[in-house]
Amino acid sequence: MRYLDEFREERDIREILEKIRACITSPVKLMEVCGTHTMAIFRHGIVKLLPEKITLVSGPGCPVCVTPIKEIDKAIKLSREKGVIITTFGDLLRVPGSNSSLEKERARGAEVKVVYSTYEALKIARSNPRKKVVFLGVGFETTVPTVAAALLKAHADGIKNFFVLSFHKLVPPALETLLRQDGLNLSGLILPGHVSVIIGSRRYQSLADIYHVPGVVGGFEPRDILEAIYMLLKQIQNQEARIEIQYQRGVSLEGNKKAQRYISHVFEPFSSSWRGLGEIPLSGLKLREDFATFDGEKYFDLEVPEAGEPEGCCCGEVLRGIKSPNDCPLFGKRCSPENPVGACMVSHEGTCAAYYKYQGRMAL
Amino acid sequence: MIKERRDKRILLAHGSGGKLSYELIEEVFAPYFENPILNQFNDQAILPIEGIDLAFSTDTYVVSPIFFPGGDIGKLAICGTVNDLAMGGAIPLYLSVGFILEEGFPVGDLKKILRSMAEAAKEAKVTIVTGDTKVVNKGSADGIFINTTGIGVRKKGIDIGGDKARVGDKVIVSGFIGDHGMAILLMREGLEFQGEVKSDCAPLNRLVSQMLDTSSNIHVLRDPTRGGVATVLNEIALRSLVGIRLEEEKIPVREEVRAACEILGLDPLYLANEGKLLAIVGKEDAEKILETIKNNPYGKNAEIIGEVVEDYPRKVFMKTRIGGTRLVDMLVGEQLPRIC
Questions:
Q1: Which residues of B fall within a CB distance of 8 Å from A40?
Q2: Three-class DSSP labels, A176-229
């Protein structure tokens, strides 16, 4: 797999680190927005290689983590209904709702199946015509096109027992909300690579224009991440605020037009609630009227009580970048991957999960 | 007895071989059965009986799918128990086999499985000497489940166990990691590159004998099945009260497996192996033992992947390819249920 090694050569890495060291003068705080970046940074042990003047904070870029408890409760409620098969990506299984999780419901007899794609969920619907098969749509712009494609297929084939609960979220509106909050003082943003493949880098222009924060769309290999950091430092040094693309091999200014058309054909933006960030206008996606027959929100009774965050849990602050997992009183004590309290400890892209898995409570 | 909360139930993750499996054994099973032999928590019990050390081990196989590239549930059931005995330094001799068959299971498939069990037993030089069969109603089991129990003998003086890793020891893995877990995953998910990765399922008793003939300086032997290399090394670090430091660059991972891991977001350190062993050995003999392993057909790609250290006792950590350092924790949750 030469393609991977190319981005992981220790010698190249040292060169970029030298360049980074050479252009850093005062302390900077950079946010890696995407959970996959967070994981990569920990998995490759990047933090300890960087000069101390660079602080990396994680952003709201883990789809499972930003899904509010109320939405999890809806999925749990639905899983208890007779004749319903819940299909979901594995990450959501263990996320605690107010008083249960899909994993626990499955142990009690609920039909909850882990799938790797929406098409697989559709296949389950076809082979179980008497059951109602619900796909839990959690994810950002990256995964939405495939959900849209599956819905178009279901529509074309006249499938009647397939539903989607759309908890999908859009990244740019959340970043604007984040930059509006006080006390964060970000010097720059490492923007998500995969999301940007779909939406293109132009969508972030307002972050630079209105909030004067530089942004670089980065890839996920160690060299990509370090290059993105270097490009940000250069902008900071020159007192610029532009949106640049480091991840040139995947991302363009305009993004993937075809995927964008799929999304807007099936979904429309609406006001959506984020864990940690609250209600954000036009930051979620719901099914358009033409696809109402597939809309789980409309078909099922999903009334659940309002749900508060678990006591002591700092997921909200962690997602806003104002607290690190180590600042949370529950981290590594009451909250661990085997007994998670908050979603950030569950998802494999969650910040707390990354800290716990790759660093634990020790300073490596 | 403390009354359990009614909502506490067995989760699939309790069978994953990771943290929850460990907790289930320690907290639920051990209090009922505890005794000095069981409390060693090795994959086999060593029973000193009238001048010989008898090794005794049992395992149950529920893998789905039952036929996979590189093997099937039958081969797995023989190799798994043979390997559990071998990892205690014992020579496996006799096996029992127990079957739970689901009503409607094709006899043709059963014969295919039995044939591969016979072949594996022949290769491992073990004899199947007793057995049992139960048939349950359709829906009460998934096709076929197999239990095998084995006994073997261990030469006097061999002292191998999970608590015997010492600072300075080297950590050897006998070849590419993650093949079995990935083969099952790819097949189960119907992913396109399935078939390119084969399970490594194999009996390792001959390899272990050769290693023991080479050196008496072998402290720990384990086969990293469920939970993978990461979980097994964590168990060793915990029981030996030492730190284990790995070098990412040295860990052999087949290119196909590495690529599939990147695509699926998995870590090969947590994928199951069914024909690999981890050896923790005195550093003086490490090269010699590595040489012996490499000369065995099942150990061609063996490497020294790390060492036992004083730092961070009870933890496993790794120098990454790019020069960073990170923790390597036990498996949490289910990476994939029913892999063996």
A1: none
A2: HHHHHCCCCCCCEEEECHHHHHHHCHHHHHHHHHCCCCCEEECCCCHHHHHHHH
What is the C-alpha to C-alpha distance for residues A346 and B318, in angstroms, rounded to an integer?
23
Using the Cβ of B255 and the Cβ atoms of chain A, whether some distance falls under 8 Å is answered with yes
Please name the fold of domain B170-327.
Phosphoribosyl-aminoimidazole Synthetase; Chain A, domain 2 (3.90.650)
User: Is the pTM of the predicted complex or chain greater than 0.90?
Assistant: no
* Chain B residues within 8 A of A360 when measuring between CB atoms: 315, 327, 329
Helix (H, G, I), strand (E, B) or coil at B208: helix
Q: What is the pLDDT of residue B265?
A: 78
Helix-then-strand count for chain B, H and E: 9, 14
**CB burial readout B123-147, b (16+ within 10 A) else e:** bbebebeeeeeeeeeeeebebbbbb
Largest pairwise CA distance in chain A? 65
Q: Which residue in B12, B262, B327 is closest to A4 by CB distance?
A: B262
Quick one: which of B116, B120, B180, B173 has its CA closest to B150?
B120
- CA gap B255, B274 in Å, rounded: 18
Q: Which two tokens stand for residue B157?
A: 């003086």
Model pLDDT for residues A13-37, shown as the tens digit of each residue: 999 999 999 999 899 999 999 999 9
Angle at A136 between CA A131 and CA A138, to 5 degrees: 170
Beta carbon pairs, A and B, within 8 Å: 90
Region A121-129 average pLDDT: 96
What CATH number belongs to B42-154? Answer: 3.30.1330.10
How far is Cα B340 from Cα B338, in angstroms, rounded to an integer? 6
Beta strands in chain A (DSSP E): 28-34, 54-61, 84-88, 111-114, 132-137, 162-166, 188-191, 215-217, 243-245, 267-274, 278-287
> Residue B326 and residue A337: Cβ atoms within 8 Å?
no
Q: What residue segments make up the domains of chain B, in order of their start?
A: 42-154, 170-327
Gap from B213 CA to chain A (nearest CA, Å): 37
Q: Is the ipTM, as predicted for this complex, more than 0.90?
A: no
Q: Look at chain B and count its residues.
A: 340
Q: What is the CATH number of domain A25-357?
A: 3.40.50.11740
**Using a CB-CB distance cutoff of 8 angstroms, which residues of chain B are in contact with residue A104?**
7, 9, 11
Domain segments of chain A as ranges: 25-357
Distance CA A276, CA A281 (A): 15
Which amino acid is residue B67, in one-letter code?
Answer: F
Q: Tell me if A283 sits within 8 A of A66, measured CB to CB.
A: no
Chain-centroid distance, C-alpha A253: 21
Q: Collect the ranges in chain B with pLDDT lower than 70.
A: 1-7, 191-195, 333-337
Residues of B in contact with A103 (CB under 8 A): 11-13
Residues of chain A in Cβ contact (below 8 Å) with chain B: 1, 4, 8-10, 13-14, 42-49, 94, 103-104, 106-108, 116, 222, 337-338, 348, 356-360, 362, 364
Chain A residues with CB under 8 Å of B7 CB are 104
* Chain A nearest CA to B2, separation (Å): 20
Which chain B residue is nearest to residue A48, measuring alpha carbons?
A: B324
**What is the distance between the alpha carbons of residues A47 and B51, in angstroms, rounded to a whole number?**
56
